[in-house]
Each structure stands twice: as C-alpha cells, then as structure tokens.
Design goal:
Length: 84
C-alpha cells in the first residue's frame, strides 16, 4: 500500500505557513495549477490550493511555456541607447 502525498498549489505568501500549521509540511509544492502539477497527483493524494479548487482545469503546457518565454525575454531586454 502506498502512502498518499500532500501537495500545496499556488502558495506565495503567509498562507503557506497557515496551511503548514493545519496540514503539516507538504510532500510537493506546485507554483501553479498547471498540467505539470496535475500529472504529479495520484489518486488518494491530498491537494491544498491557495486559491481556486481541484475542479478548475489545469493550465496547459503551452500556457506555462509562453509565460516562461515572456519572463526570459524580459530578463534579456536591455536599453539599446547608452544611459546618460
């Protein structure tokens, strides 16, 4: 028999520590409810959401990839004119 795992989804502030006090330390932390997180959850696992619920459709891989591309592009951008 396998042990069920505790997953936290979307925690970015003090709500994380409130959830830890109630549920204990999570076995997995997922930044967002996306397809990656959904694929890691097995039947019987407990999933705690900072916002939303398990009935919500996970974001697609393509949405996550686009967000990642935008973040990388923003990090690479630099002024083309020298600063005075």
């Amino acid at each position: 028999m396998t042990r069920s795992l505790l997953h936290f989804v979307g925690f970015r502030d003090d709500r994380y520590w409130n959830a830890v006090r109630i549920w204990g330390e999570p076995d997995a932390i997922h930044e967002a409810w996306d397809q990656y997180a959904a694929d890691e959850i097995a039947p019987g696992d407990v999933v705690i959401f900072a916002e939303g619920n398990a009935g919500a459709q996970p974001r697609s891989f393509s949405a996550e990839a686009e967000r990642s591309r935008q973040a990388r592009a923003a990090a690479r951008s630099y002024p083309t004119e020298p600063m005075e």
